[in-house]
Amino acid sequence: MHTPINVGLLGFGLSGRYLQSPFYRAHPGFRVTRVVTSRADELAEEFPGLEPTDRAETVMNDPDIDLVSIATPNATHYELARAALEAGKHVLVDKPACATAAQLRELRDLASRKKLSLSVFQNRRWDSDFRTVRQLLDGEALGELINYEARYDRWKPEPNAKPWKEKPGPGAGMLYDLGAHILDQAICLFGRPEDVSGSTWIQRPGSDIPDAFDMQLTYASPLRVSLSCSLLVREPTPRYTLHGRRGSYVKYGIDIQEDQLRAGMEPGDAGFGTEPPEQRGILHTDIGGLPFRGPVTTRDGQWMELFERMYATIAKGADAAVPLDDVIAQLEIIESVNTGN
Q: Which residues form the GFO/IDH/MocA-like oxidoreductase domain (predicted)?
């Protein structure tokens, strides 16, 4: 393995250009040496002097590439990840890791046999609001948690202009696209649920994929977890609603890192990951025996943590930032909701 770790990036759309490549540039342990894309002008803006590569096979066959970072359409993730592992490369694959849990089990076993790292880009474990939720749950302000609700809503009444985003097939639909995030967060907090129910459906005229979902996850009494998504929510609803025996926490808005990256900020810039004060969530509880209701400072978002942990896994053999068993459980739940089983 080379030092720094040489990265071949597959795809240079939203995820590749804005959500992955800035962290590779900022982290001294990585160096992007190949990017598969047709967007030569955009690539030149981010990596001056780096010529685009036109085929994924070129990356797989390059002996100087240590890590293949997959930021391509959902339906391609499994095949590309398998090809990279078979070529002896470490892998970071965007979520959803695969369309089925069986596919991810196969990739996990292949990576294990070849002594390679397989990581999944579940970056929203390091969102500012989710980090704050974890901090509250580690404390005593809420008491025993009774109800946890997370929503991932958007206002997108028209089908996506990118054909692959609206095409039925493996890994298609909002349950795979956005549900993979909030379901991963729930598993991170509470583990695998005892039971799952839910449904997906199409809300928008002209859409050919399920663009809304509801899920209920059952854990040991009294905890109940509800997860949902709609692309027809114009007036924002709370992103997180937590109720415990001692208090409640309600949080609007979403982590600011994606917007900052798309606006040209870089990880490490002053204010990166810091949300505005007006977006703080409200905590209503008792502190020192006295009622308290007021804003809670939101922790900074730290997507860089995923890349720091991935570097430690590849270079030093540290545990994966996101356990693959968690992602397998996520895909099993998604499959059960999709099939109604």
A: 130-249
307 is written with which tokens? 């890349």
Q: Which residues of the chain have pLDDT under 50?
A: none
Distance CA 109, CA 128 (A): 33
Residue 114 DSSP symbol:
T
Hey, where are the domains in the chain? 5-121, 124-302
Tell which residue, 157, 100, 119, 147, has the closest CA to residue 242: 147
Q: Look up the CATH number of domain 5-121.
A: 3.40.50.720
Q: Please state, for a pLDDT cut of 70, what percent of the chain lies above it.
A: 100
Alpha-carbon distances of 207 from 122, 195, 203, 242, 298, rounded to whole Å:
26, 30, 8, 32, 36
Nearest partner of 74 among 187, 168, 183, judged by Cα:
168
Q: Where are the beta strands (DSSP E) in 95-194?
A: 118-121, 145-151
**Interatomic CA distance for residues 259 and 192, integer angstroms:** 31
Measured N-to-C along each axis, helices 179-190 and 324-339 cross at an angle, to the nearest 10 degrees, of 120
For domain 124-302, the CATH architecture is 2-Layer Sandwich (3.30)
215 touches 197 (CB < 8 A): yes
CA pair distance 70, 9, nearest whole angstrom: 6
**SS3 state of residue 10:** strand
For 39-57, write each residue's pLDDT tens digit. Answer: 999 999 999 999 999 999 9
Integer CA distances (angstroms), 27 to 22, 48, 234, 267, in order: 9, 17, 37, 9
Nearest to 173 by CA among 196, 204, 142, 195: 204
Q: What SS3 state is found at 180?
A: helix
Helix (H, G, I), strand (E, B) or coil at 196: strand
CA-to-CA distance for 239 and 33, rounded, in angstroms?
Answer: 38
